[in-house]
């Protein structure tokens, strides 16, 4: 994307009806490492790739617990995510303090969307440069939400954001029909397979042992408070995914092709690659 | 207005003017006993919630699990207990999120003292006893006064029958004034701690009308919290 | 909240005509809620007594639901002032609220609750408030008011079922003291109805609906005979997984023939 005369601040429209600053923020999400969220009937799972930025440093925290029923995984500017997670945590805590129960997930997303929207309409603010995948569980079951810097949020069956997420998206689409009824182990394995497909081929070929794949996995669901899996559990599931990989992948065939742009998975809105017109539609959960 | 003389409305009591004082406090009764051992701690509280001669509930737990190895027993003004424990739970979740670990019993003890002292001039009217395992896995008991004075102990009784129960514990657990040398003190076992705690409540229920109905006993060890119930007299 | 975004008028914080400029950080004096301001010109202070009052509320939990009953009287001192007022309210499809104490305060808190129910509906996500949440919220509101020494003079019964159909019956008083049990009562019901219900409680199981409704009928009768601030007419709220409604008004079956036999007074 080139600098042009209509991107001086977020309150300036381009003649094509675009907000360039907001689109730049969305581009920041694509710089972050990939993360995947998916759910079955009882559980929502987040899987994130956490590559250390250099050999000397530890990797960034990709998954942040918000409350016992809710957590987010992030792609983009981590510092912005910290501000948002702080906001979500304090909302959840004060809700729990006054009502003695957990914050209904769709309502929390609505308040988050409202907070983020103000940054897209004021000259003295910049949009949050981070995309969120939010996994939560409430009385209506598990939820996966995607939140963009544009303050759009989408209620998803499965979703992925971050760099090279297109391949993971392809994987998720291929297996979408099976997610609802599969087991807890299966859904985690699907998540791991999806995130594996975002790795470049050369890194993937190195990936002979489970230790090569640096991932964080978190799960939340029925009788399962939000939990980031330990290293041992990660290895266990990586192993399981590897064993199942042969059967799962042979059914569909691997597809790493990034140019491939199949229809997306979001229930509500397509997300075409690259810059696009700002979306005004807001996805709300339809009543069951 | 001044012409009407209404600004001189008297501060003192005037005959014929009805005035009802509101007291923000009320005693809802209840007793707690906690006994710490080498690798365990026992905390027990009765389940009667009353005010005056009315019993509101015969089945109200006064033990609040704050973490897998810390339990707070709180009695006194029940609305203050609810507020205080609610606030403690919020603060503990905040700690857990910022530090990525659960608060130790000693940290909880310190925080409880500060939270209570924050209301120095409008205190939480509660008698708190905190029981748990410290970072070395040793049983500890902390007791508090309503404004946050905190004291570490190995056994303690609190609540409406606290003054009845503490001397029993001094005798049975502390072996006070029995002229025993330090090496002669019999070691405290879990079973004995539970049975002494149970016995003190049975005695308290005889003499204290605010203690009765049943006792909830929590036994905290490194393997988790074991819960027991014991029925008391219900009159 | 976001007002600081807009440019301030030139003469904000300036002196009123004929007065001096206030250099002490502008007129940021916090506007206290009216109930917090102390003694007014007529010596008015925080409300210190209930004026129009409702008497007992009795609630009983049975297997699968709850019953809440209250007579329809709102007294003004010893005067039986309003005789046809429901004191048991349906809050939503899961919650009943029975109110005793100052009726103005009950109406005030009821308005706030109704507003919350409307906010629930506005979310349009099918999530409704549960009785346990409402009771918890009430403890926070009432505790805050008592901590400001300006309590709402009410004693309420919150009853209902949660999303799994499990019944809940609780009580919150003017200080924010809260508990839940299989039977709760306020006012004189605490002395007259509670022992009556506890006596009949089977040790090993919950009440059945028949047992609970018979007990409610009997409690309301006893309360009418013995509580001077009551009338022989009451409403009963029923809440279970399938139904939430306030039934009535019902009449107490009074029988005063024994009065002739009373001697020695």
The chain-level structural class of chain B is alpha+beta
CATH topology assignment of chain C: Glutamine Phosphoribosylpyrophosphate, subunit 1, domain 1
Strand-residue proportion of chain C: 25-35%
What structural class should be given to the helix and strand makeup of chain C? alpha+beta
| Number of distinct helices of chain B | 4
Ranges of chain C where pLDDT stays below 50 over 5 or more residues in a row are: 24-29
Q: Which chains have the largest interface?
A: B-C, 28 and 26 residues
Report the helical percentage of chain C.
25-40%
Percent in helix of chain B: 25-40%
Radius of gyration of chain B: 21 Å
Organism (chain C): Drosophila grimshawi (Hawaiian fruit fly)
Protein name (chain C): Proteasome subunit beta
Main location (chain C): cytoplasm
Keywords (chain C): Cytoplasm, Nucleus, Proteasome
Short description:
Chain B has 235 residues and is α+β, with helices and mostly antiparallel strands. Chain B has helices spanning 78-99, 105-117, 162-172, 190-207; strands at 31-36, 41-46, 49-51, 54-57, 63-67, 70-76, 126-133, 139-144, 150-153, 155-159, 214-221, 224-231. Chain C is globular.
Task: Describe what you observe in this structure.
- The complex is a heterotrimer of chains A (288), B (235) and C (265).
- Chain A is built from 7 helices and 10 strands.
- Chain A has helices at 20-29, 78-99, 105-118, 165-179, 184-196, 201-206, 231-252; strands at 35-39, 43-49, 63-67, 70-76, 130-138, 141-147, 153-156, 158-161, 215-221, 224-228.
- A 5-stranded antiparallel sheet of chain A has the order 8-1-2-9-10, with helices on one face.
- Chain A is globular, with a radius of gyration of 18 Å.
- Chain A starts with 19 loop residues before the first helix and ends in a 36-residue tail after the last helix.
- Residues 250-288 of chain A have low confidence and may be disordered.
- Chain B is α+β, with helices and mostly antiparallel strands and 235 residues long.
- Chain B has a 5-stranded antiparallel sheet. Chain B has a 5-stranded antiparallel sheet with strand order 5-6-7-8-9, with helices on one face. A two-stranded antiparallel sheet of chain B has the order 3-4.
- In chain B, α1 crosses α2 (105-117).
- Chain B is globular, with a radius of gyration of 21 Å.
- With 265 residues, chain C is α+β, with helices and mostly antiparallel strands.
- Chain C has helices at residues 103-123, 131-147, 189-199, 209-226, and strands spanning 52-54, 57-62, 65-71, 74-76, 79-82, 88-92, 95-102, 154-161, 167-172, 178-180, 183-185, 233-240, 244-251.
- The model of chain C is unreliable at 24-29 (pLDDT under 50).
- Chain C has 4 helices and 13 strands.
- Chain C starts with 51 loop residues before the first strand and ends in a 14-residue tail after the last strand.
- The interface between B and C is medium-sized, with 28 and 26 residues.
